[in-house]
Prior knowledge:
α2 runs parallel beside α5 and α5 crosses α6. By secondary structure, this protein is mainly beta. The chain contains six helices and 47 strands. The termini are far apart. The N terminus is likely disordered. β4 and β5 form a beta hairpin.
Amino acid sequence: MMSGSTARRWGRVACMLAMWVLGTWTREVRAARRDEAPDATLRRFALIAGSSEGGPGRERLRYAGSDALAMSRVLQELGGVASADQVLLLEADRGTLLAALERLVSLVEAAAVPGLRRELVVYYSGHSDADGLLPRGERVSYDDLRKLMSRVPVDVRIAILDSCGSGALTRYKGGLRRPSFLTDASAQVRGHAYLASSSADEVAQESDIIGASFFTHFLVTGLRGAADTSGDGRVTLHEAYQFAFHETLARTERSQGGPQHAAYDIQLAGSGDLVMTDLRGSSARLGIAEEVHGRLFVRDWGNQLVAELQKPLGRRLSLGLEPGRYHVTLERPSQRFEAELVVGVKGGAELRVGDFVPVTLTRTVSRGGVVTDVPLARESSSEGRADLPSVPINLSLVPPLSTSMLWGGGGLNHVALGGLAVRSFQLRGLGLAGGLGWVDGTMEGAQVAGIGNVTGGEVLGLQLAVGGNLAFGGATGVQAAAIVNYSERAFGGLQLSVVGNRADAQMQGSQVAVGVNMVERLTGAQVGLFNLAGSVSGAQVGFINVAGNVKGVQLGLINIADDVSVPIGLLSLVRKGRIAFEIWADEVSPLSVGVKYGSRTVHVIASAGVSPWKGSWRSFKSLGVGVHLPVGVADRYYVDLDLSMGGWTPQLFEDGTPNHLYRLRASFGWELKRRFALFGGLSLNAYKPPEEDPDQGVTWMPQFQTGRGASGTRMWPGLFLGVRI
């Protein structure tokens, strides 16, 4: 039995241990709360625009769109910009750019909450000159841009312009160049910051080698962590600018366009670092060890250069990347090394010196007699390989009972077969499982499972399951499931399911479901009962279609959109569309009323009219579609082309025998005052009388008959005149 003194000693030890644990836990909670406080009080909005065309005489840019997408991704992944708070414009013109800024005014005003600090980031990649931006050759002056940005009710406004001569923006009203700013950590700044990729008299350059413009390429690299000189896991505006400035200048000093100097105008009051990106909350990080030094080139598995930086010796770096497989090249004078690794969804990856293998260099002599080192392709010997250890066949009952565990659980599988479940670190081939198929890294090939498939990195191929498919990396190919398909990153291909499909990022392809389709940005088609999308370039076909901006067709019973090119449905609600009420008289009915609703160019027309006939009144009803074409200055004149189908009933509120009246109308309108117009025009009419009463007429106009018998189709030209409200 323990003595009393011994018990008291152990009691004191336990008490001290409990107090130590409680104190440690309290400090961690307070630290976490301090870290989370800025996020809880900050909401950041972004307008990202790219425009390749600059008007006559200006060369089409190749990477304006991809630059905009790269900036969009880094702000959403690490910059605290929610997808609902971002407006992405590809091939923007002046009208869409100005309309997007107006939309942000409403969006920010709706987010007004006491104690919430709001910030605005405007990024533009395209043509410009010393006087303003030139999206598709249509000028937006720097003065107008500043005024429009000032209307957005935010505390901080950040403009980033990657275009020729954009430095003229930073000289407006005595913009100052300062060696540093925002050195406090309280994050209570107010004002504006304007960054330009080039000075007022310089050209902004893009490169086929890096597949981007120099400035955006290095700015995005910096925002992903390369600019984090303090090592605190956050990249401030000052750090990002300094990194992009020096790297852009270094890469363009000997280029054909000459050295390119980024410029800025900072007018910020208060104290605090203006943090642009925060890597601390990102689990998909590539850590670069202190001993690694030289120029690093990081490419994804699609050979796209995603980061480039000069890594100094003795400094540890972290890059926030999308989950997937990466190829890293390290260059030093007369030396070149390469490595391959996987950045997982959880835990990331660490790049060390031992991960690199040397690449053979061969010395050559140019025609001028200068001896140079030219890197060759990696040799195919076993010593030159940096691939993961290969476990060709992974047989599993349920993880961890698998053959891969004999080799440490990692490696690359070409065939993965599982009873209840099978789990692979990487899969390049075929995976089959009666229950669950799981790949931590990238999957190139096909996964087929009875319950579901989960892939942490890139998916290139097919995922087929009775239950559901989840892809947390980029996906290219087909997802087919009875219940649900989900893709967290960009997806290219087909999602097919019974219940629903969801893609959180950009999708190029089609979503087909009996139930619900959801996607943030779509280039292609959605087919389902309910279709929900942020922006669409293509078509939505379903019972109910809901989207932001639709460059294409919405076909459904109910269509709802901010803006749409062609809405076709019984009810189309377009916020930026048109709704007009018309009253007119024609050769069929002395009084008709109708409503036109839809987009600015395509509308649905529903109408009803009355007409006296042989001592009683009968009614006409019709439904159709039409096109609205503004003409002249300020759209005071217009032409409408409408095609409708309807019929008449012998009494006002009774159904009659089947008959059909088809009408093609061309009307010319003149807007006398705002929201009031006169219109008139010509029509071409075709009438199919009821078989029970083929002598029934609908008009006093002369007619000619097509077809044989008394019930043949009758046609005639018509006239109409009315007013529009």
